[in-house]
Amino acid sequence: MPKLLIKHPEKGDLTFTISGNRISVGRRAENGIQINHGTVSGVHAEIVAVNGHYLLRDLGSTNHSFVNGNQVTEAELKGSCLITFGTVECDYIAEDAKAAAPNSAGDLDILRKNVGILRAQNDELLAKVAEQQNQIEILGSAKLLIRPSGDGDAAGLKHKLAVVTAERDAFAMRNKALMDELAMLRASYGSGLRNDDDHDIKDTVRIKLLPTPVGVDASPSIGAAGTPTPHIVVAAASH
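Given the sequence above, the corresponding structure tokens read:
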């Protein structure tokens, strides 16, 4: 059975199979083939079976019917051709179009035109795919940039600051204890200490502590396990 491929400028390609003795074409839903477009009349035309083949008959449409670019009131559809209702182009594909080879210059021109249309549609689709891929990459990059960080909340940062400060103070206390022990040993042995390359006792370098950050207690307490426990000092808001 022959087919009508409608190349709707807004809805894309629509394919209808033509069967029976008569099928109407128009904008209204009651037509056998509906083409909902502003240039197509409510009941625009009809395709009628006559003597084993179909013919196209215009039904007084406002914007007329065309076959291969020629305005027609009635025309036989003996082979594949281009039908235009108003400004909507349609490919009429004869029943034996797949089996028969093109045998005229008109058939070749129609095939070339169809190939050109398909290539243009493919190029448009490729451009849309590229645009969508670009949008996906942009959104993916934005997602990485706005991804929340683990150190983003103030409470977590205050806790980490207190822990690091407590560790610093604990190391300072240990250093002081070692310095005191060294001073006691020097006082006990006095001048008996040798100052050669084998037994050189050098001064311990004191650690210069930075000021305690604001919001952190400078005197950490010692927990049950002997590790310093940080204290966070929260200043009361003035009214």
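Residues 141 and 170 are 43 Å apart (CA to CA). Try to locate this feature in the token string yourself.
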